[in-house]
Amino acid sequence: MGAVYVTVKLLGPPERKPSKPEKVEALVDTGATLSIFPAVLLRRLGVKLLHRVRSRLADGRVVHRGVGEVRLKLNGEIVTTRVLFGQAKDATVVGLVALESLGLAVDPTKRRLVHSEFLMMISF
User: Fold this and answer.
1) How many other β-carbons are positioned within 10 Å of the β-carbon of residue 100?
2) How far is CA 2 from CA 43, 71, 82, 91, 112, in A?
3) Of 124, 77, 82, whose CA–CA distance to 104 is shortest?
4) Domain 5-115 belongs to what architecture?
5) Domain segments of the chain: what residues?
6) Cα atoms in the Cβ-side hemisphere of radius 13 Å centred on 105
7) DSSP secondary-structure letter at 44?
8) Rg of the chain taking only CA atoms, in angstroms
9) In degrees, to the nearest 5, what angle opens at C-alpha 44 toward C-alphas 38 and 49?
10) CA-to-CA distance for 70 and 81, rounded, in angstroms?
11) Are 74 and 102 in contact (CB under 8 A)?
12) pLDDT in 10s for each residue of the chain, 124 residues
């Protein structure tokens, strides 16, 4: 099994004058809750810093990062999702919240994204 990379398009907030979408190559990481994109790119798109959160890295260290909301286009669909403002050494990542919002999962053997069912675990 190997890493899965995708090309995503990021769009600024809908209330802002339409800007050209930014194409970004990102690692798909189902172990990351939120997606991570370079802060400089998010600022250029007009993404507002909502607040800061504490995040745990794979090696156990704790870091603090800003959170904002961006429109993300992947596999032909657009979703508004929370993202972390990445710093210089942070990987560019599509995380689980964005994937689940789009109904996507990772096929590790073919190293690609596939559509998955949305779950409603309630019965009437």
Assistant:
1) 16
2) 32, 27, 26, 16, 10
3) 77
4) Beta Barrel (2.40)
5) 5-115
6) 8
7) H
8) 15
9) 70
10) 6
11) yes
12) 578 999 999 998 877 666 688 999 999 999 999 999 999 999 999 999 999 999 998 899 999 999 999 999 999 999 999 999 999 999 999 999 999 999 999 988 888 998 888 777 777 7
Q: Which amino acid is at 43?
A: R
DSSP string, 64-119: EEEEEEEEEEETTEEEEEEEEEE-TTSPPEE-HHHHHHTTEEEETTTTEEEE-PPP
Phi, psi of 37 (to 5 degrees): -130, 155
Find where tokens 């998010």 sit.
Answer: 42
Name the one residue in this structure whose structure tokens are 């099994």.
Answer: 1
